[in-house]
Amino acid sequence: MTPPDQSANSLIQECIRNKLEQLCVVKTQLNLLSISPCRFDLSNFFKRSSSSASFNASKKLTNQYYLVSKYFTYKTNMIPLIYEQQVMLECLYTKDSIAYGTVRVHNRAYEKRVFARISENDWKTFEDIYGLHSMNYPNDNTDAFTFGLHLKTYDDNTKVPKQINFAICLQINNQELWDNNLGWNYILDILER
Fold it and tell me: Which domains does the chain carry?
């Protein structure tokens, strides 16, 4: 059973309102991780590295390069699509060298994990950035997760990639379900200031 249809305007307004709230939460959580007095390095707490690629959450933001998402489009009437596809990137927001994403998933089970799999070299290597559960959505049998991707700082001797590819994964009931933008991957361009 799907909930009643919502107008495109109300969905977009809800997405923007929720995104701003979630950005504050993610920023607060990331700031807490980077200034934690704990003797352990918590910057990788929500990450699982599967390669040598490095997308470290740096304390310094680079002013030389920034991220842009040219190809992400907001979908209208998302709820039926979420029920069908199980996992979808709902919002993508870039600010300077950081990209924030909101992922909506069909709430089929209590135990679930969501991550963004990212690569800056056409999937030769990749890294997974785990999403944080968000409580900002009405009871429509979906859950929301947010993640933040920080562009690493490049020195003069490093070849800077032109883009970052990523896809979203939902791990639930011993399954992996993917949103890879209908096979095209999501793309963040890396531009020089």
Answer: 8-192 (2.60.40.2440)
